[in-house]
């Protein structure tokens, strides 16, 4: 199956996509570098492990509380302006943390508030950014979407390493790096020339806009399928990772070994994302999703016989190697079937629904590890993935859903300041 390559885009659009890609990569790198040390700062400030949970919960709460608002705004406002504003707001939040640590004036209230604001700002950036993709690329460009997925996995690998190294030098440095990354990302977004403003023929109330996004997802069988699948796969992967960490710890694995498992998982995701365009060219999308889904079940079930940390890392790496194959295909089709003026809301609905169940995954993993054997834990995760694989197999025919009319990326982009 042929896909559109960035090399076939006009120089104007290819340049803007590179800026968009770089902005997202730098943002992700800075965020991962600071988030890995945020719990350490919370403990250092309060001396209480409970504070870690409070700060982490508020960071997630900021994203979830802001999501309905940012989803609507992303389909109303100029998306480039919204992305810049969100990035600079997040920069201010991390700048406050860095400055307070530097002057030794940080208190838990400031840390928690900054985490909440940063989470809300990230929601705004992601909503507007999701809406912008269809303006920058044809929706069937699997290669470009795979590059974005690979970029995110690379940030997951390098960010914690950078954050840990900077934290060893000074506690405020990871947050200064995050501040700088947000500013650089904002500069990159500001340099994008393509008109990212959503084209809308009529205005409705805020609540009406929110309902329109929810109704569109609920009324599209394919989008309903993607929403349920994404929520299930995020929950399953989060529970699996936490279970592997807890089981490895109970078996006496060193923190370095456990960290290596997580690194291997991210490397697997990176390699899988890089391989996705070639796989999609050789296999039908429907077949790719079905094969990848059931193969993940097999690899997780194989954890039943895994006894060493390295074997856990190998099998988890193989699972994460396969997941981008399905994820990129489904993302491309979701972008294609969604009209331009609903892109932000639809992406936010799918992302938020996928994130909420993930919050409960650590609790489930802890309960399972505490009360049943590692083999039962592995089989439980495999059973959940088997349900999702069956669900995907039954619904994979929905990939033939017609695209939304009037793809804005089919036309030559214009300036946001001077739309033609």
For the structure shown, list the relevant keywords:
2 domains; 15 helices; Growth Hormone, Chain: A; mainly alpha
Task: Please outline what is shown here.
Keywords: Cell membrane, Membrane, Transmembrane, Transmembrane helix. With 420 residues, the chain is mostly helical.
Please count the helical segments: 15
Helical percentage: over 70%
Name of the CATH superfamily of the largest domain: MFS general substrate transporter like domains
Order of helices and strands: HHHHHHHHHHHHHHH
Q: What CATH architecture of the largest domain do you see?
A: Up-down Bundle
Question: How would a textbook summarize the main sheet?
Answer: none
Give the rounded overall mean pLDDT.
84
Global morphology: globular
Radius of gyration computed on alpha carbons: 21 Å
What percent of residues are in strands?
A: under 5%
Poorly predicted runs: 1-7, 410-420
Looking at the structure, the CATH topology of the largest domain is Growth Hormone, Chain: A
Task: Kindly describe this structure.
It is a single chain. The protein has 420 residues and is mainly α. It contains 15 helices and no strands. It is globular. The N terminus and C terminus are likely disordered. Keywords: Cell membrane, Membrane, Transmembrane, Transmembrane helix. GO terms for molecular function: transmembrane transporter activity.
Topology readout:
Layout: H1 11-35, H2 38-46, H3 49-74, H4 79-102, H5 108-136, H6 142-169, H7 173-190, H8 206-219, H9 221-250, H10 255-282, H11 285-301, H12 309-337, H13 343-355, H14 361-371, H15 374-395
Helix pairs in contact: 1-6, 1-7, 2-3, 3-5, 3-8, 3-13, 4-5, 4-7, 5-13, 6-10, 6-12, 8-9, 8-13, 9-10, 9-12, 9-13, 9-14, 9-15, 10-12, 11-12, 11-15
